[in-house]
Amino acid sequence: MQNLDTLLAALRAAGEHTRLRLLALCARSELSVSELTRILGQSQPRVSRHLKLMVEAGLLERFPEGAQVFYRLSDRASVAPLAQALVALLHEDDAVLSRDLSRLKQVTDARALEAQAYFDEIASSWEELRQMHVPQEEIESALRQSIGEDKVSDLLDIGTGTGRILELLADRTQRGIGIDFTSGMLAVARTNLKQAGLSHMQVRKGDMYQLPMDDQSFDLITMNLVLHFSDDPAEVIREAARVLMPGGRLFVVDFAAHSEEYMRKEYQHRRLGFTDEEIRRYFTAAGLIPAVPQQFVGDPLTVKIWSASAVPDYDNDED
To answer: Boundaries of each HTH arsR-type domain copy (predicted)?
Structure first.
């Protein structure tokens, strides 16, 4: 049951023509202030004022990303059901809303073209790397099988890249967030998730050494071919453990130790893979319980899936 003051504040924040339009748009896509300004045909200060009011009321969520700020319909605040109900009442055949949605498509289409151009620039190096280990499909299948069929409440994918892991696990995840430090990759991921219709999956700009998340926020965390870019892998694992719920699981997909020295320069790899003992040491130092790793032998690179779990909170175990 909502507090009356909270509910009234949310209703007041939504009760304006432009703000209802903003709710409808942000329910369909994560949008920056500049994109919303283009769609609505209003000034940036005016749009920003409306957005500020709705964020304060809990109707929208605000996510800074470099020089830009993105907004989306809230799915965590106490008034999130109200925001969703209001959007459901808005008919797409309304003349104003129909025009907004047409402009939204133009914006997201342009975004997709920019994202594709960025990915085209790096696609060749990605393909070269893929040919050096077992097919990605085999690794993804093993990862899904290891995670199991149980529904995941909150997923965090660290170093999400194109958002592939979010797509892979979308059917068994209630809510997922992908973190990446590269704006270009975030644009690719955001476009991929939008085109796949995965509104419960989001991406955010963030640092794997300082995750912008609260302690014990996720029951599943993944890192797919990310850890070898780190100067301090132990710290990355410690930070992941910090945001892992009691009993939650961490999966690290990466290369086994190898001697392909040229990859430091050509692919900016900071580490030439890892041994089982190194990963086990990182896990235990972070207070996690390691599991038996899986191995996928390739030429010249072998990929491994290491996993660990956080200690369960037996005091709150209803069983």
So the answer is: 1-94
Helix 183-195 to helix 95-130 angle (10° resolution) is 120
Summarised one tens digit per residue, pLDDT across range 10-40 is 999 999 999 999 999 999 988 999 999 999 9
Mean pLDDT of 256-272: 87
- For residue 265, how many other CB atoms are within 10 A of its CB? 8
**274: nearest Cα among 247, 254, 295:** 254
Q: Whole-model pTM?
A: 0.79
Q: Which tokens belong to 6?
A: 């909270």
**CA dist., res. 237 & res. 308, Å (int):** 10
Q: Is the peptide bond before 300 cis (omega within 30 degrees of 0)?
A: yes
Q: Please name each of the domains of the chain with its CATH number.
A: 4-104 (1.10.10.10), 132-316 (3.40.50.150)
Q: Across the chain, what does the average pLDDT equal? A: 90
List phi, psi (to 5°) of 262.
Answer: -60, -20
Q: Provide the 8-state DSSP code for 216.
A: T
Q: What is the pLDDT of residues 36-52, one digit of tens each?
A: 999 999 999 999 999 99
Burial class (CB in 10 A: 0-12, 13-18, 19+), 242: middle
Q: Minimal CA–CA distance to 280: which of 244, 308, 258?
A: 308
Q: How far apart are CA 177 and CA 58, in angstroms?
A: 19
**Coil vs helix vs strand at 157:** strand
| Interatomic CA distance for residues 213 and 222, integer angstroms | 15
Query: Is 243 in contact with 156 (CB distance < 8 Å)?
Result: yes
